[in-house]
């Protein structure tokens, strides 16, 4: 006797809606965005973090190579450490800490 296997039914949709959809929403990482003077301090990943994911990776790569912070601030964060050294350093330090 041949055994009959029940037909598979498509899974019902599990896409979120309402408030849950907002929690699941993600932003695409930007390729080379400008940054705020200080990184977020939230305990959760923010939209700002999601958009700057590639920036965080670049900061971590530069730190692994012991790159000079002022060069990283200029190239990665688009801040001029000669004109605004305190602002550039604060942005570099807080964004690197956030990346870690």
Number of helices: 5
Specify the biggest β-sheet.
Answer: none
What's the helix-strand series? Answer: HHHHH
Structural class: mainly alpha
β-strand percent reads: under 5%
The Cα radius of gyration reads 22 Å
Kindly report how far apart the N and C termini lie.
Answer: 62 Å
Q: Could you give the count of β-strands?
A: 0
General form: globular
Overall pLDDT score: 83
The helical percent reads 40-55%
Low-confidence spans: pLDDT under 50, at least 5 residues? 5-16
Question: How would you sum up this structure in a few lines?
Answer:
This protein is an all-alpha fold and 100 residues long. The chain has helices spanning 18-24, 47-51, 53-64, 69-75, 85-99.
Tell me what you see in this structure:
- With 100 residues, the chain is an all-alpha fold.
- 46% of the residues lie in helices and 0% in strands.
- It is globular, with a radius of gyration of 22 Å.
Topology, element by element:
Elements: H1 18-24, H2 47-51, H3 53-64, H4 69-75, H5 85-99
Helix pairs in contact: 3-5, 4-5
